[in-house]
């Protein structure tokens, strides 16, 4: 077995030094009835490295992927460009195979990268501080609701119906076992009517959660909501699914978010069938000590040199146990390193180009839609909903597009169970080329 | 220079260490931007109305500068590829490189979770197979791959336990018993699940005390959360009786699988009476820790808990695999995705490499290595609990403290000698804990070098040569860092 | 380690100075020593009404955290805002600059209180 360094004579010598005759004697404290026979488990045969590559390549070949298919899919996962350097950096063993940086003297690489990550995420979202990641956006949204309850010492959570249904479902699920109300506000079909959300706020409300740009792609002003939150002394939580937007449009922080959470997958992380992605968690400085998860802070060492450590640890489970701000321990550390590398390669200008191209592709498509397909109204970043005459027309189009190596969108009801089955959620990124849009428009003919 | 250089004994060294500014200190103007694909067209006027007014101030570096920046940072890190990493309860084993190749196959890396299901049969097939393997290895046949980490798995497992009790009409069962040796995630997860914890005091041998357990079991008890082997590295030999008592009281047994590396292929938690177990694939199945994550915390349960598994579930009907999103009895969705797929694929590749022929050798060599270290150090360091250990061994600083040397000093001195320290000050049930987990992928040569270093440190204590221990580490890029300053005046972002 | 006369002490290592109907709270020198370098004190809101024995503040060091309980009941009328930026005052001057909160005693509500001598004996036990 190539991952095990011992020879049989090593093992024998080690057993002798321990003073037992056989390896099985080391397991004598496990009752005999629980010992299983060697080789009796129903697993596959041991595979050589070559056989492993063959097995996984065969499976991979059954999946259509972004190297052979054009993607107009979003809904929380986006096909953005990933520079080769990102994968190189996160493949380096010093980043890849390190543990959580609890021994800071020999983890300064991870720690400085986390500090740079936190800074860039705070800047991009327009927030004061960021933690060192959550699992992904849906659980980050749930954690934001929990944090708002701690900060305000109130327990009611109001969720806008325009938030990604998966973020809503996970948040509702997390809250369902705790005291306090959870209210989801129906905003109608792709609705942007914030007044309905504002109407749901009362004195016991801890926070309102909205998504910006919302699940259906809408971009709208949150100022009225901010004012309503101030009046009711509750927090405004802004969720987002494609952070690349904030290089182009106003950030959640600029719109007054108290907490902003979402996905950082767009920052150099492949779609990967949904994970591992990157959950982001940011907030205003004054709420910093109620944040969940790890954070990295600046300090000095015994020689007076600048260095970094994990800090504010008393919030966390390993110290505060049942009173911790969250149960999270492992986070998405390596994905933070990917994101910070990506952002350093892009800079403001590159990030802005990504966002502009993503938005321009959508605009180019929507502006040329034929009459038999309608796009949702209002300002959009890189995502929108197309509506067809009926589900048959839509599905004809999807099938034809798939034939032409083009995934044209996500049937809306696949994520949003309440939606009619004639809508299609579509997203564009800088990976969409002008020809792809032309093909898309040509293919729409079959939906007539 | 002679060919055989015997001037060094340990690999700790002062190499070529480059200072590297934080990104925001690179003063020059942004270089020419990276060349990006896509549509260089107009954005809609509606969107323009929301244009960001001030740039985010993300400094851009040219590619060579960026590479050098991050490569230099990487060089300040210790990783399992650099050297020994004996963190107890963390299972820092070698991470096979072929697994990295596997997850980068375009058909696995560049696929969207919502693309048509007939175009993702390959990945679903691999996930379905992994579910089966984890069920077989744990002895708990029903598996969800969704939880994103161990702590997330704990929450999901407790959700299922709670749902099963509720289905029996036992909504009053909300008490979770947690030994005082448990990981902090256990009580934190129970709180998040709307339950409350009661701490069980460990017995004199560090194990669960049956009398203490009986005292706390009552008709409000929902579950016992236990780690076996426990965090002192000892197998809970009373496991059968523990499970019997808990079940007799109408409660369930939750297994924290953090220490599964001691049992994998040798014995199965499900056979012992555990009802529900999370598996840290980033420990037992060698997915890289990545400086803190991502991890994966699949949960395996018995038939009684199976109806409550979260959605989506990966099912096979005929020759077709599918994600099933609705199920009435399910505890619901717990993540916005089917799971940390890339992490799970690596775990699958690790299991495949050992196969049914060799899987038990993971636990065998892991336990052999821990006992070897324990045996070599037990005369020089205080061992709080006698007997064989499993995959990790527990020492304390009791003997060194007499010389004014504490666990923290021993840990930091190890850094100077070229080793990552063991887990320190955990578990909380002994004073000055040092928890050492060598894992199965370390050679005897490495174990000996580490034990020699530990013995050198013990010698230094006894010789009164303690100043260098208090000052340690002296060799790495940074010396001891001021955590008080960091927490008093937190600076979490670089000022603009 | 000091235990000034004239103050009352609790088994949870808090001190209270009662002055007419006003009581000032803090943690003892022993408590701050056990916790180590204090990095943060979470203060109660002014106006909050406490019952004796209720956790009203949290004192944190780098690796430990401790709830602080009210020795007597009453309404919080003042908190030591200086601790916000200088929590180290709890370490350097536990009975002076390190005070935490001041309450107006509204009812006869108190946990078991000890004199300085009694507290000293309690610590030695």
Automatic annotation (TrEMBL), chain A:
InterPro entries: GcvPA, GDC-P_N, PyrdxlP-dep_Trfase, PyrdxlP-dep_Trfase_major, PyrdxlP-dep_Trfase_small. Its EC number is 1.4.4.2. This is Aminomethyl-transferring glycine dehydrogenase subunit GcvPA. NCBIfam families: PRK00451.1 (NF001696). GO terms for biological process: nucleoside metabolic process. It is an enzyme of class 1 (oxidoreductase). It comes from the Bacteria. The keyword Oxidoreductase applies. Keywords: Oxidoreductase. One of its GO terms (molecular function) is glycine dehydrogenase (decarboxylating) activity. Residues 1-443 form the Glycine cleavage system P-protein N-terminal domain. It holds the Pfam family GDC-P. The lineage of its organism: Bacteria, Pseudomonadati, Pseudomonadota, Candidatius Mariprofundia, Mariprofundales. PANTHER family: GLYCINE CLEAVAGE SYSTEM P-PROTEIN, GLYCINE DEHYDROGENASE (DECARBOXYLATING).
TrEMBL record, chain B:
GO terms for cellular component: cytosol; glycine cleavage complex. Keywords: Oxidoreductase, Pyridoxal phosphate. InterPro entries: GDC-P_C (IPR049316), GDC-P_N (IPR049315), GDC_P (IPR020581), PyrdxlP-dep_Trfase (IPR015424), PyrdxlP-dep_Trfase_major (IPR015421), PyrdxlP-dep_Trfase_small (IPR015422). The glycine cleavage system catalyzes the degradation of glycine. The P protein binds the alpha-amino group of glycine through its pyridoxal phosphate cofactor; CO(2) is released and the remaining methylamine moiety is then transferred to the lipoamide cofactor of the H protein. This is glycine dehydrogenase (aminomethyl-transferring). GO terms for biological process: glycine decarboxylation via glycine cleavage system. Its cofactor is pyridoxal 5'-phosphate. The keyword Oxidoreductase applies. The lineage of its organism: Bacteria, Pseudomonadati, Pseudomonadota, Candidatius Mariprofundia, Mariprofundales. It comes from Mariprofundus erugo. Residues 364-462 form the Glycine dehydrogenase C-terminal domain. GO terms for molecular function: glycine binding; glycine dehydrogenase (decarboxylating) activity; pyridoxal phosphate binding.
From TrEMBL, chain C:
One of its GO terms (biological process) is glycine decarboxylation via glycine cleavage system. SUPFAM superfamilies: Single hybrid motif. The gene is gcvH. Binds 1 lipoyl cofactor covalently. The keyword Transcription does not apply. The glycine cleavage system is composed of four proteins: P, T, L and H. Its cofactor is (R)-lipoate. PROSITE patterns: BIOTINYL_LIPOYL. The keyword Magnesium does not apply. It comes from the Bacteria. This is Glycine cleavage system H protein. The modification N6-lipoyllysine is found at residue 63. The glycine cleavage system catalyzes the degradation of glycine. The H protein shuttles the methylamine group of glycine from the P protein to the T protein. Keywords: Lipoyl. InterPro entries: Biotin_lipoyl, GCV_H, GCV_H/Fam206, GCV_H_sub, Single_hybrid_motif. Residues 22-104 form the Lipoyl-binding domain. One of its GO terms (cellular component) is cytosol. Belongs to the GcvH family. Signal peptide: none annotated.
């Amino acid at each position: 077995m190539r991952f095990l360094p011992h020879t049989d004579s090593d093992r024998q010598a080690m057993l002798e030094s321990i003073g037992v005759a056989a390896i099985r004697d080391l397991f004598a404290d496990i009752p005999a009835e629980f010992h299983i026979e060697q080789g009796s488990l129903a697993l596959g045969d041991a595979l050589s490295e070559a056989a492993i590559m063959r097995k996984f390549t065969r499976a991979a070949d059954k999946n259509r992927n972004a190297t052979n298919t054009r993607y107009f899919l979003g809904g929380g996962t986006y096909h953005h460009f990933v520079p080769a350097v990102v994968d190189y950096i996160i493949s380096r063993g010093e980043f890849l195979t390190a543990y959580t940086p609890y021994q800071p003297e020999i983890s300064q690489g991870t720690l400085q990268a986390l500090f740079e990550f936190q800074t860039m995420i705070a800047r991009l979202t327009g927030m004061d501080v960021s933690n060192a990641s959550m699992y992904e956006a849906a659980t980050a949204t749930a954690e934001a609701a929990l944090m708002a309850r701690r900060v305000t010492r109130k327990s009611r959570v109001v969720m806008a119906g325009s938030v990604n249904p998966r973020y809503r479902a996970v948040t509702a699920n997390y809250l369902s076992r705790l005291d306090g109300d959870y209210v989801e506000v129906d905003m109608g079909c792709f609705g942007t009517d914030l007044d309905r959300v504002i109407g749901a706020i009362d004195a016991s409300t801890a926070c309102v959660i909205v998504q910006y740009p919302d699940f259906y792609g809408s971009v709208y002003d949150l100022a009225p909501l901010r004012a309503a939150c101030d009046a009711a002394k509750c927090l405004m939580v802004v969720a987002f699914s494609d952070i690349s937007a904030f290089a182009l449009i106003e950030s959640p922080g600029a719109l007054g978010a108290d907490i902003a959470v979402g996905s950082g997958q767009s920052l150099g992380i492949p779609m990967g069938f949904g994970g591992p992605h990157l959950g982001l968690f940011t907030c205003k400085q004054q709420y910093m000590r109620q944040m969940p998860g790890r954070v990295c802070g600046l300090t000095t060492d015994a020689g007076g040199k600048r260095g970094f450590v994990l800090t504010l640890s008393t919030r966390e489970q390993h110290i505060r146990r049942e009173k911790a701000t969250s149960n999270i321990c492992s986070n998405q550390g390596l994905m933070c390193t990917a994101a910070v590398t990506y952002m350093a390669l892009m800079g403001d200008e590159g990030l802005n180009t990504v966002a502009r191209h993503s938005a321009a592709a959508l605009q180019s498509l929507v502006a040329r839609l034929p009459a038999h397909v309608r796009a949702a109204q209002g300002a959009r970043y890189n995502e929108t909903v197309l509506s067809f005459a009926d589900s048959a027309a839509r599905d004809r189009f999807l099938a034809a597009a798939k034939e032409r190596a083009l995934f044209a969108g996500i049937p809306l009801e696949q994520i949003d169970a309440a939606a009619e089955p004639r809508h299609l959620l579509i997203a564009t990124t800088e990976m969409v080329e002008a020809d792809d849009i032309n093909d898309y428009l040509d293919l729409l003919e079959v939906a007539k | 220079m002679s060919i055989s250089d015997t001037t060094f004994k340990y690999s700790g060294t002062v190499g070529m260490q480059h200072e590297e500014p934080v990104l925001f200190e690179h003063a020059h103007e942004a270089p020419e931007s990276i060349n990006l694909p896509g549509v260089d067209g107009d954005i809609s006027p509606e969107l323009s109305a929301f244009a960001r007014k001030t740039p985010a101030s993300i400094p851009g570096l040219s590619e060579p500068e960026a590479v050098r920046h991050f490569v230099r940072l990487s060089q300040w890190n210790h990783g399992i590829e650099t050297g020994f990493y004996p963190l107890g309860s963390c299972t820092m084993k070698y991470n096979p490189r072929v697994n990295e190749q596997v997850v980068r196959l375009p058909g696995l890396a560049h696929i969207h979770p919502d693309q048509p299901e007939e175009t993702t049969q390959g990945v679903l097939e691999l996930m379905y197979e992994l579910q089966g393997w984890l069920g077989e290895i744990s002895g708990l046949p029903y598996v969800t791959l969704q939880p994103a980490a161990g702590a997330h798995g704990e929450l999901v497992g407790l959700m299922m336990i709670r749902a099963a009790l509720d289905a029996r009409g036992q909504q009053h069962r909300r008490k979770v018993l947690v030994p005082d040796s448990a990981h902090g995630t256990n009580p934190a997860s129970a709180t998040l699940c709307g339950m409350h914890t009661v701490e069980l005091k460990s017995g004199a041998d560090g194990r669960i005390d049956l009398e203490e357990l009986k005292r706390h079991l009552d008709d409000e008890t929902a579950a016992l959360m236990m780690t076996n082997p426990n965090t002192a590295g000892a197998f809970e030999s009373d496991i059968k009786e523990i499970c019997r008592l808990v079940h007799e009281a109408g409660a369930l047994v939750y297994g924290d699988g953090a220490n599964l590396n001691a049992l994998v292929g040798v014995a199965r938690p499900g056979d012992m009476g555990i009802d529900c177990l999370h598996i840290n694939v980033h420990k037992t199945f060698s997915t890289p820790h990545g400086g803190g994550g991502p991890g994966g915390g699949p949960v395996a349960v018995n038939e009684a808990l199976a109806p409550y598994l979260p959605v989506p579930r990966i099912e096979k009907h005929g020759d077709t695999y599918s994600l099933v999103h609705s199920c009435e009895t399910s505890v619901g969705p717990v993540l916005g995705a089917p799971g940390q797929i890339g992490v799970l694929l690596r775990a699958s590749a690790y299991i495949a490499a050992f196969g049914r022929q060799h899987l038990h050798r993971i636990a065998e060599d892991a336990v052999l290595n821990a006992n070897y270290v324990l045996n070599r150090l037990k005369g020089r360091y205080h061992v709080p609990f006698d007997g064989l250990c499993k995959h990790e061994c527990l020492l304390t600083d009791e003997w060194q403290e007499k010389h004014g040397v504490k666990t923290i000093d021993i840990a930091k001195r190890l850094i100077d000698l070229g080793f990552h320290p063991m887990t320190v000050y955990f578990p909380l049930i002994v004073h000055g804990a040092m928890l050492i987990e060598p894992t199965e992928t370390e050679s005897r040569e490495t174990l000996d070098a580490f034990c020699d270093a530990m013995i050198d440190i013990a010698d230094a204590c006894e010789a009164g040569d303690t100043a260098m221990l208090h000052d340690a580490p002296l060799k790495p890029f940074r010396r001891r860092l001021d955590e008080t300053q960091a927490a008093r005046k937190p600076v979490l972002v670089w000022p603009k | 380690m000091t235990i000034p006369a004239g103050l009352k002490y609790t088994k949870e290592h808090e001190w209270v100075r009662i002055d007419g109907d006003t009581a000032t709270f803090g943690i003892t020198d022993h408590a701050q020593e056990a916790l180590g370098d204090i990095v943060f004190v979470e203060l109660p809101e002014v106006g909050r009404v406490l019952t004796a024995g209720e956790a009203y503040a949290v004192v944190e060091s780098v690796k430990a955290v401790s709830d602080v309980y009210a020795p007597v009941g009453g309404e919080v009328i003042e908190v030591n805002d200086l601790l916000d930026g200088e929590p180290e005052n709890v370490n350097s001057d536990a009975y002076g600059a390190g005070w935490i909160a001041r309450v107006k005693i509204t009812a006869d509500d108190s946990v078991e209180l000890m004199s300085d001598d009694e507290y000293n004996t309690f610590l030695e036990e």
